[in-house]
Amino acid sequence: MIGDVFRIPDNDASCDMQEIQQREIFVRGGAIAENLDEIEKALVEQSAGLFQRNGRLVRPARTVIAVRDGETVEDLGLVEVKATGLVEHITRAASLMKWEARAKRPVMINCPRDLAEGYVARTGQGNLRSLTGVINAPTWRPDGTLLDKPRYDSETGLLYAPQRGVVFPPSLATPERASVSSDRGAQRGSRFVG
């Protein structure tokens, strides 16, 4: 399961998310483009739990889904991130500072709303990870390897987040690509009798 939805590792990261020092960003008037570029670098460096999907900024969130007979299940879904919610993500990912004339020194601040709004308006143009979908069971990648560790997979754009309480058996040694292809072919041709 993905524990901290503010930081989601990808398949290029080590299993243990190291503490990465926050980028210091000095917020200056008249420099919104530079400030937004620095904010994006901080979000990427911190593996922020934000993604681009279909031209929108989204984040994973626990949701309750209605199923048959009035029952519900809890699962991971995607919610669109608005500027108000983005303020928290940016403030977690970076140390934002501004010059305080009375104190004659820089002071830490929360992300100003206009910067969060500016970043939301940039969605689709930046370097945040693109999200194809969220899965809750291991799956094969096109190269024949198994995606079976909870994380974002940069090769497929999938976020693997197993459902709470569901445990899959440990994966066997990764099979050769040829055997995966032949197994898939056999599955396509097989008929199931019920």
How many H/I helices?
4
- In percent, how much strand structure appears in the residues? 25-35%
- Which structural class is indicated by helix and strand composition? alpha+beta
Uncertain segments: 185-194
What does the average pLDDT come to?
83
Broad shape: elongated
Radius of gyration: 21 Å
Query: How is the quaternary structure best described?
Result: single chain
Strand order of the largest sheet: 1-5-6
Which sequence of SSEs, written as H and E, runs from N to C? EHEEEHEEHEEEEEH
Task: Describe the 3D structure.
The protein has helices spanning 32-45, 83-93, 113-121, 177-189, and strands at residues 23-26, 51-53, 56-66, 72-80, 94-100, 105-109, 133-135, 139-140, 146-147, 151-153, 158-160. With 194 residues, it is α+β, with helices and mostly antiparallel strands. The chain has one domain (23-188). The radius of gyration is 21 Å and the shape is elongated.
How is the topology of this model organized?
Blueprint: E1 23-26, H1 32-45, E2 51-53, E3 56-66, E4 72-80, H2 83-93, E5 94-100, E6 105-109, H3 113-121, E7 133-135, E8 139-140, E9 146-147, E10 151-153, E11 158-160, H4 177-189
Can you give keywords for this protein?
three-stranded antiparallel sheet, 11 strands, elongated, 194 residues, disordered C terminus, alpha+beta, three-stranded mixed sheet, single chain
